Amino acid sequence: MRARLIYNPTSGHETMPNNVGGILNVLEEAGYEASAFSTTPDESSAKNEAKRAAKAGFELIVAAGGDGTINEVINGIAGLDKRPQLAIIPAGTTNDYARALKIPREDPIEAAKVVLNKTFLPMDIGKANDGYFMNIAAGGSMTELTYEVPSALKSILGYLAYLVKGAEMLPRMKATKMRIEYDDGFYEGEASMFFIAMTNSVGGMEQLVPDKQFSDGLFTLIVIKTSNLKDILHLIAQALNGGKHIDNDKIIYTDTRNVKVIPEEDEKLMINLDGEYGGDAPITFTNLQRHIDIFANTDELKNSISKDALLENNKAQTKVNNEEK
Questions:
Q1: Cα–Cα distance, 93 to 162 (Å, whole number)
Q2: Which residue in 91, 106, 166, 287 could disulfide with 12, CB within 3.0 to 4.6 Å?
Q3: Residue among 276, 300, 323, 324 flagged as catalytic
Q4: What is the rounded CA–CA span in Å between residue 245 and residue 302?
Q5: What is the pLDDT of residue 192?
Q6: 310 within a domain of the structure (yes/no)
């Protein structure tokens, strides 16, 4: 079996190049013939390499970097009929996806060792028009902060940079007129933002979607219908206090397989996919259930995994064990 490590050399305070040798050793220990590719400043560098490696028959791709690098790798393989397995080594600012899958976030070598357990999940992937995302899609004034935080500030302060910028932007919150269609109905009116979540970790917060299950084929849609600063602060306080915001009448909180977002004709609504600019609405989101097998610490995740996905994982693990015997 072959594994291809795709890593961003500038992630993690530029420490990734020093860990490449150790990561390749772990992959070799796991039974793979391993090689590495360092991304370049060229647009879609990680995406293009992931697609090339997948078409070349690599059984495993290891994405090392921030959520943006992982998103690029997802976009490289999600549209293919035959997709390799994926492992993640977090080296970014928030590392939401690794947090959700309980992958070690402080040590790249320890993160690589998750592959040694040979346990993975068939994870849902979101499709957004012609692109893909693995964790979150969003739109509205609050989501604009991800574009406004300078890279240098993120490198120095990490997630604190987002908190600082978020506090600065709160007084500037404004509503956008839009129509949001989902499986059980629609909302038409003003909203300061909407989120489409695929895991329980959004912007470093695990309380925003406290009941999220992985691999169930459903997005969790949150629409915030107010731009009033007092209301927003109250919602944030409720979210931090055990996820009590889900019953607040100022939001819509529902599960759905499909979402369509249409701004009013004179409104501009930028879409954020996994922390990166993903084009402008109108846009249609579709959940691709159990689309890519991704290595995870499944023992720590059993309460978050849908029963069907857990059964599928157990069957796959039994097959691996029998092959090794």
A1: 9
A2: 91
A3: 276
A4: 24
A5: 87
A6: no
21, 15 in Cβ contact below 8 A?
A: no
Q: Give the Cβ contact number of residue 67 at 10 Å.
A: 26
Task: Copy the structure tokens of residue 2.
Answer: 């072959």
Give 317's pLDDT tier (boundaries 50, 70, 90): low
Amino acid at the residue 170: L
Q: What is the pTM for the complete model shown?
A: 0.84
Q: Which of 38-52, 172-186, 280-294 has the lowest mean pLDDT?
A: 172-186
Distance CA 51, CA 54 (A): 5
Pairing mode, strands 60-65 and 2-7? parallel
Task: Give a yes or no: residue 301 inside a domain.
Answer: no
Return all residues near 101 (Cβ < 8 A) that are at least 6 apart. 88, 121, 199, 294, 295, 296, 297, 301
Q: Please report, as a single letter, which amino acid is at residue 140.
A: G
- For residues 260 and 222, is the Cβ–Cβ distance under 8 A? no
Residue spans of alpha helices (H) in 190-288? 229-240
Determine the pLDDT at residue 314: 56
147 and 71 in a common domain:
no
pLDDT, tens only, 127-162:
999 999 999 898 887 666 555 555 544 444 344 444
In a 10 Å sphere around its CB, with 0-12 CB exposed, 13-18 middle and 19+ buried, how is residue 64 labelled?
buried
Q: What's phi and psi for 251, nearest 5 deg?
A: -130, 160
275 Rama class: left (phi>0) / alpha (psi -120 to 50) / beta: left
Peptide bond into 17 cis (omega under 30): no
Number of structural domains (the chain) is: 2
- Is 65 inside any structural domain? yes
- Which range of residues forms the domain containing residue 16? 2-117
276 is catalytic: yes
Q: Where are the beta strands (DSSP E) in the chain?
A: 2-7, 33-38, 60-65, 85-90, 120-128, 131-133, 136-140, 176-182, 185-191, 193-197, 219-224, 251-256, 258-263, 270-273, 276-280, 283-295
